[in-house]
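The aim of this short unit is practical: by the end, you should be able to scan a pair of folded records and say something sensible about each. We start with the first protein, listed as its amino acid sequence and then its structure tokens.
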Amino acid sequence: MNCPADWPEPIVRVQSLSETGNTMIPDRYIKPPSQRPCFNTRSDNLNNIPVIDLFGLINGDSATQKVVRDQISTACREWGFFQVVNHGMSPELVDEAREIWREFFHQPMEAKQEYANSPKTYEGYGSRLGLQKGAILDWSDYYFLHYLPSNLKDYKKWPSHPPFLRDVIEEYSKEIVRLGKLLLKVFSINLGLEESYMENAFGGDDNIGACLRVNFYPKCPRPDLTLGLSSHSDPGGMTFLLPDEHVSGLQVRKAGEWITVKPARHAIIVNIGDQIQVLTNAAYKSVEHRVIVNPDKERVSLAYFFNPKSDVLIKPAAKLVTSKTPALYQPMTFDEYRLFIRMRGPQGKSQVESLKSPR
């Protein structure tokens, strides 16, 4: 991927800005009025994203499995987002995966700076997305690492402290990959495709991409002026988010309205990415989402991106293309696609919408 070796401007750690105790934030983080959050968004149970219990899918008979598959199908078509519980991961692992990263971000700055990243791969400790000079930035720091394909996994780029972080993330990563492959199978069946279609379209068992971005959203004295992460749809296949159960932050756009997600206990939030929107010819759509920040509490979340192989062509499944539903998208590799994000940062749904074939 043809990205510069360095950022266009000196990097400032948002956590350091937060810790100064200033009551105002730098201009670089102040969003235009049209992009600023509003805090009277709906977050009641009737407007929360669906919560789906996977126990019956993993352990039930065929009839029970179909009930759960139907719930997933409805969530994919109507929301593009859902939460899964009884997903097969232990509550202890889920909690430990989040809290060990919180501990990482509370280390001295020198320890974190050893892993400072560049836009070439984004691997390591970072504080901005996109390369536009003078861009308005988000109020967050992060850590990015690769898990799959195995030739990209480099333990030297995984933090060595806190102790056991590498072991915990290795175990958590294996569980996320298991869950990802299960859901690809479910999506294929629900769409009337061969059950291995989606996994093969991603490049097959040994070529699927899996990478983790751990998000750290420090306290912000003016949460009304900025965002932790600007509005965007995820460029990859699908995303598995381990949220901070005690601090709300994720907002999902539905019918023009921002809905603040209420995480279920030990749930994993799943959302459709742009690549699945293309593969399904928009039967399943990726959805804009963003993150708000908090004046009193920090927030930690783990976003695991489950992606196609970087050089495989992604295009609508032939079985989903008919005279009534012609192909909406031209073939494009995931590498070509995500270069847009790496150069420009979050830009709503402008990338996937711009790819639609002329009619």
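Turning to the second protein, read its sequence before its tokens, just as you did above.
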Amino acid sequence: MLHRKPPLLFLLIIIIISTATATTTIPQQFKEAPKFYNAADCPTTATVHVAMTLDATYLRGSIAAVLSVLQHSSCPQNIFFHFITSTDTGASLLRATITTSFPYLNFQIYPFNSSSVAGLISTSIRAALDTPLNYARTYLAEILPPHVGKIVYLDSDLILVDDIAKLAGIDLSNDAVLAAPEYCNANFTFYFTPTFWSNPSLSSTFSDRKACYFNTGVMVIDLNKWRAGDYTRKIEEWMELQKRSRIYELGSLPPFLLVFAGKIKPVDHRWNQHGLGGDNFRGLCRELHPGAVSLLHWSGKGKPWVRIDVGRPCPLDALWAPYDLLKPSFSIDDV
């Protein structure tokens, strides 16, 4: 049988791909989203600031979340996205991907030095919760510019089906530093260890407040109050104690609960239909909570894009799929 030599161009392509793979991860390719325009009555000075983390692992979810925010906003051109990414991640590749999918997006990327928090992180029940970037929400007041006084923080595994301006407009004029949906029927004791509850000096932290669970994946934060109250340091103090005496098991959430539970401005549950990713061990399918829905959140082990790719989606993953901008492996756009 006659064996032909491969064309020189083909060999060069193989060499380039092999070299690139050895030094960095080839990013996924995403389609370009349509441009969204403001309604005629949109104010010209009312900017909605949105903060999200950005990394290669959750990039697909982040892009879907951004699309959902823009698509359901009455004033999408008034939205400014603040993306925080790890200093050891290819920020230029992430920037190029965002720009390609959203050419007209107002955004800025900020580096987060993972080493600054690495020494404070304790192992939790799921490895994904121990990623340093998962703790960036604690440092928003330091990372973002001083002129950003109010921020909507969003996780990367959610979509909005309502106008984000309604969420951003939550009144924080009183003492509350942040607003989020509260879940007072949840077993609050679950989030801390027996070591915590058996120590009166620790458990008394909640004695003067009606402490309820809230999910830190969706928060409205007054950064000016945060800075004035030095809340980053207050959270770090609990993280330092955790390193000495294990008082919780669940990543970056418990320090927020220790500082803020019972002191936040409650928000309607429609703004965080969370837990759609299932529990942290099995990731079983879940149904929506009763009531209206403005935001669907796949918190938990299972992510919709992963379940879709392996052909085992949960029923509610069909609500996420329309916002997925990932190109198929072989796209007509590549021809």
